């Protein structure tokens, strides 16, 4: 996979406002909100975001992969998933793991991907989550939407600071 990441000036803009990160983070938050509330309104907002940022055809294709990823993650996650309301300018552990996993796949960082998967699910369920995440990461890459890399050390730092979670499976 050839990688072309546009120059990013951290002092000139918010990381979460970059299109690739917005597609992953806001897409995850909105799709999760649909499951949590039982309302289609957050899913309609996700559709509007994806088609606005990617166009109609590409937005629908990427949304299909996001939906598959979130559904798979919800079925396989070691604990109930958490997310902030969409539009929030902070990030929780589960959101960080999603961003980290998609970025790791796009940048062929197996160590960071394993760290994220290990925090999300027990080992026998890494396969389905990894496959769904890879499909999502690949479709975004196909539309030239590459997340900035998140080093494995940063993922491990987030995990070391996060409150311990009880496993519910």
Total number of helices:
7
The largest pleated sheet is described as:
none
Order of helices and strands: HHHHHHH
How far apart are the first and last residues' alpha carbons, in Å? 36 Å
Portion in helices: 55-70%
Structural class: mainly alpha
Low-confidence stretches: 1-11
Q: If you average the pLDDT, what whole number results?
A: 88
Shape: globular
How many β-strand runs? 0
Rg, Å, rounded: 15 Å
- Beta-sheet strand percentage? under 5%
What is the element layout, followed by pairings?
Blueprint: H1 19-37, H2 41-54, H3 56-76, H4 93-106, H5 110-120, H6 126-142, H7 152-161
Helix pairs in contact: 1-2, 1-3, 1-4, 2-3, 3-6, 4-5, 4-6, 4-7, 5-7
Task: Give a short overview.
With 169 residues, the chain is mainly alpha-helical.
Which terms summarize this structure?
single chain; mainly alpha; 7 helices; about 65% helix; globular
Plain-language structure description:
Helices cover 63% and strands 0% of the residues. The model is unreliable at 1-11 (pLDDT under 50). By secondary structure, the protein is mainly α. Helix 1 (19-37) packs across helix 3 and helix 3 (56-76) packs antiparallel against helix 6 (126-142). It has seven helices and no strands. The protein has helices at 19-37, 41-54, 56-76, 93-106, 110-120, 126-142, 152-161. The radius of gyration is 15 Å and the shape is globular.
């Amino acid at each position: 996979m050839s990688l072309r990441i546009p120059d990013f000036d951290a002092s000139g803009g918010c990381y979460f406002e970059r299109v690739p990160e917005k597609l992953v983070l806001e897409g995850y938050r909105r799709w999760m909100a649909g499951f949590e509330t039982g309302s289609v309104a957050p899913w309609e907002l996700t559709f509007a975001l994806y088609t606005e940022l990617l166009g109609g055809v590409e937005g629908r294709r990427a949304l299909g992969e996001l939906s598959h990823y979130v559904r798979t993650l919800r079925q396989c996650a070691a604990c109930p998933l958490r997310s902030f309301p969409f539009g929030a300018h902070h990030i929780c552990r589960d959101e960080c793991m999603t961003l980290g996993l998609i970025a790791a796949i796009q940048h062929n960082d197996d160590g960071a991907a394993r760290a994220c998967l290990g925090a999300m699910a027990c080992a026998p369920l890494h396969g389905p989550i990894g496959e769904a995440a890879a499909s999502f990461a690949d479709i975004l890459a196909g539309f030239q939407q590459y997340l900035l890399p998140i080093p494995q050390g940063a993922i491990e730092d987030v995990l070391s600071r996060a409150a311990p979670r009880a496993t519910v499976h």
